[in-house]
Write a structure and sequence with these properties.
Length: 404
């Protein structure tokens, strides 16, 4: 078993794989900012945000499979995985044509991004099996394969000077080629599959929780595309690179912690929150000290003047990093509707930007930070209440046993 208290070989491998995945996700808009026009960059960022939102079905499937296996061991998950893939494909078919019209997106590029997303969703099953079994070395390889498929093809296309559509076509091909490799990594010859099959409801709960986290964390980018001029929304897209960096940089902690959280290990939760919070604080401080450099690295010298706003974007991502950890803890603990408060926060953010907040880069960025802080407060309160309730229940059970 891998232990969170130290950095062993398995933990280091997952860390490297997580860094690789985050780096590739970071490189896509960075290269796009240098190779594409501001308008195409905004299209790319919008497609990445939209497919990331739908692609949380993959994360939900992975989390549900991992939690189930950590509790009961190897068990059937094929039916739930297939239904998850079909549901994600159905959502894309229904939503993307509307997005093409409303958000003024090119149809072919949008369709290719959707094809990549379906492949990423399918990968969640095998990643979850490896994570739930705490087979972190194969998991690290799997994460690297998925990241290479999801982002590597797009990076290669953009770096070679290909158009946005051609780059997305290469990306769709590399995602599909990654799936057989994942299947081989997850195989454990001789393992007996038994126990109750994974329930579709568990996938729905985990997926809805992850979806709520990403919707609220990406809502500002989509709102900027809708309400800001194209050049300003392109600049805002560069700022959200810092947000995504602060959000995803510490997520390897959550990956390692999840199987233990499913087994009710509170020490793991405390340590995980400490590590994620420390990472966020470091990144916000770095953004405050070198904001110009951060924007220059994210989008090029043309965006250097926006450096004074870097701490706002980094702080937003840091808050959501903690929210993601807390949401995973609730899912692992069996909470039925952990995502409900985040949907409320999302609705309030959309309403505020639509009706109240001035349509400027700075105002939208501050509104996004306010939403992130609100989401963190709400999820912290819910987790605290749940922990206290479980302590009270155990004390009551102990008292009853003593009387008997």
């Amino acid at each position: 078993m891998a232990k969170l208290s130290g950095i062993g070989t398995a933990g280091l491998a997952v860390t490297v794989a997580g860094v690789l995945a985050n780096a590739l996700a970071y490189v896509v808009p960075v290269i796009g900012a240098r190779r594409l026009t501001a308008a195409d960059l905004s299209v790319l960022a919008t497609l990445l945000a939209m497919t990331a939102i739908v692609g949380v079905a993959s994360t939900g499937l992975q989390i549900a499979v991992a939690v189930h296996r950590a509790r009961v061991g190897p068990s059937p998950a094929g039916r739930s995985a297939l239904l998850t893939v079909l549901a994600a494909a159905g959502v894309l078919v229904a939503v993307l044509p509307v997005a093409v019209v409303v958000l003024r997106l090119p149809a072919m590029a949008t369709a290719l991004a959707a094809a990549s997303t379906v492949g990423v969703v399918a990968a969640g099953r095998w990643l979850g099996e490896m994570q739930g079994d705490e087979r972190f070395l194969p998991l690290a390889a799997g994460l690297a394969v998925v990241a290479g498929g999801r982002y590597g093809g797009v990076v290669l296309g953009l770096a070679a000077g290909a158009s946005l559509t051609t780059s997305l076509l290469i990306g769709a091909a590399t995602v599909l080629l990654a799936l057989p490799v994942l299947h081989l990594l997850a195989r454990r010859p001789g393992t007996r599959v038994s126990g109750d099959p994974l329930a579709v409801r568990a996938v729905f709960t985990a997926g809805a929780a992850t979806l709520a986290t990403l919707v609220v964390s990406y809502a500002d980018l989509l709102l900027s595309r809708r309400f800001l001029p194209p050049d300003v929304s392109g600049a805002y897209a560069v700022g959200t690179v810092l947000t995504k960096g602060a959000l995803w940089a510490p997520q390897v902690v959550t990956v390692l912690a999840l199987p233990r959280l499913a087994q009710g290990d509170r020490r793991t939760l405390r340590l995980g929150l400490l590590l994620v919070g420390a990472c966020g604080a470091f990144l916000v401080t770095a953004a405050a000290l070198a904001g110009g450099l951060a924007f220059r690295l994210a989008g090029g010298a043309a965006y250097d003047g926006l450096g004074r706003y870097a701490p706002i974007f980094a702080a937003t991502g840091a808050c959501y990093g903690l929210v993601f950890m807390l949401i995973n803890a609730q899912v692992a603990a069996g909470a039925r509707w952990p995502s409900a408060p985040l949907w409320v926060v999302t609705a309030l953010l959309v309403a505020a930007v639509w009706l109240i907040v001035p349509h400027t880069l700075v105002a939208v960025a501050w509104a996004a930070l306010g939403a992130a802080a609100a989401a963190l407060v709400v999820t912290s309160v819910l987790v605290t209440v749940r922990l206290r309730t479980s302590v009270t229940e155990r004390q009551s059970e102990g008292a009853i046993l003593s009387v008997e």
